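DEPOSITED CHAIN:
***
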Amino acid sequence: MLATAEFIVETPDGEVEFPLTGPVADHLLDHGYANADREPHWHLRWCLDRMEVGEAIDVGDARVHRIAAHS
């Protein structure tokens, strides 16, 4: 686990850890889990920023967990 990981994205291919919302949104869009027409980058980041620690959301076939708060 990354020492600064704030999010874990679970996909059918495994788990990926991210420190900030921007890279999470990029990953979800770049790998086709999110639809840019329906869930643009700014909206994904807005949703991720508002997640509570311990909360999880589904984005397509991916599940995003917030495991820490940005410090």
